[in-house]
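Researcher: Sequence recovery benchmark, item below. Answer with residues only.
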């Protein structure tokens, strides 16, 4: 996807980190988190959104998205990819 643009329904920091790894040049999303916007700024990825939110909420609506929580204190996209893969494995094992 290097050099391409992407559109996504909701973009938080976890997704933003993956877009950095993919090498996209621009992202559009109706909803984007403040931390995702920060990632895009840091990596010179153009982005547009309709609504900026503080956090991406989980499906139950009672907390932060587990993927967002996983990368909360990570700034390196490669490290984010590693921890996201591990988190996904744990989630799949528990379903």
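Model:
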């Amino acid at each position: 996807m290097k050099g391409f643009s992407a559109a996504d329904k909701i973009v938080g920091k976890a997704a933003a980190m993956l877009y950095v790894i993919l090498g996209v040049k621009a992202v559009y999303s109706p909803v984007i988190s403040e931390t995702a916007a920060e990632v895009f700024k840091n990596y010179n990825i153009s982005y547009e959104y309709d609504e900026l939110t503080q956090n991406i909420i989980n499906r139950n609506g009672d907390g932060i998205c587990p993927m967002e929580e996983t990368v909360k204190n990570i700034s390196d996209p490669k490290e984010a990819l590693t921890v996201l893969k591990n988190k996904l494995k744990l989630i799949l094992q528990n379903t």
